[in-house]
Amino acid sequence: MTQSTTQVRAVRIGEVQALEPGSVDRLVAVGLGSCLGVAVIDERSGACAMAHVFLPECPATGPKAGAGDGTYADRAIPALVERVMRAAAGARRSKLFAVVAGGSQMFGARPGNEVGTRNIEAVHAALQRAGIELRAHDVGGSRGRTMRVVGVHVGPPSVEVRVVGSEARVLWSAGANEDAMQQLAA
Amino acid sequence: MAEYTELQIDALREVANTGSGHAAGDLSEMLGHSFDISVPRAVVTDIEAAIDLLGGAGAEMSAVAIRVGGDVEAMLTALFSPDQAANLCMLLGIDAESEMGQSVLQEVGNVLACAYANVLAEMSGISFDVHPPDVLTDMLGSIVSSLVAATTMDIGSVLLIDSTIGVNDADARMSVLFVPFDDGIERLLEHLGVA
Prior knowledge:
Helices cover 23% and strands 31% of the residues of chain A. Chain A has helices at residues 73-87, 115-130, 174-185; strands at 8-10, 16-19, 26-32, 36-42, 48-53, 96-102, 133-139, 145-150, 158-163, 169-172. In chain A, strand 4 and strand 5 (48-53) form a beta hairpin. The longest helix of chain A is centred in the middle third of the chain and has 16 residues, at 115-130. Chain B contains six helices and eight strands; from the N terminus they run H-E-E-H-E-E-H-H-E-E-H-E-E-H. Classes of the chains: A alpha+beta, B alpha+beta.
């Protein structure tokens, strides 16, 4: 196995970043409020792409139409699928799944403050359109989150979520999934 | 959001200047300490640059967020670091962790919002409502991005008007963000005579 060093790469608002199979880099979206972190993972190769989604829908025209790939939920999901497929030669669309975190309402439930909820709905709809299964999510509520995709040498990366003042917790990992399966089987 | 001229930015800065001036006066009266304010900066930038400017996405902050409504809608948010909140409460002889501490921070937020609402009313001749504040402690990135998503629905150019209010010494400063809603800013500029 080749020696590789871990790089922590920030996924800033509106960005999409990819993790090659076998990369031990970490993709981190810090301070997700009403924003959503969306990771699309190829289970077989371990390739992953992550977006920091800001708003639900891209306006059809006007100056905002050309904003970054990850800014709008409706555009971010197809962009993520494309990036994962490009990152791994053997990736199959049917083996892709998604992990999502964020979409909180930081300022209480008042008109104009429901962006988080609309972001969640828009991501769900876009995943459905793309035929991507949602495996795990931690969404809603009133706290901000940091989402971290942790690459490993072999297999799919794990996904962690942390809120201010608490420990990070694993939202999805291949191992945890097997444990859960074994628990179900036992 | 459109581009702004230097004249328009100056006019918005003046709103913040007058608003935080009134707020400092009101706080002095209420709390019996001397307050001072900085010359506010009005920045039109992208949201990530705005977050970096205020201390970085991961910085923990307490925020008192208030919606000021009327013909012109805006979110007014006072930001304190945990240290600044503790220092402010200490100056006032109150434990920041206590219920009293939280209510003092809320009251400080209320005073700020009312001061700004009064200034806007004076400048435009329209009266404004002040909604009850939300007090929260979270990551700066979560707070500011949610604020901008809810008001301007834009990522490209964010208008932040930031002024600083100090109490006695620099350790108890707070940052005050004034973020007008996208559809209200044109009217605000009109009322200020710089549309």
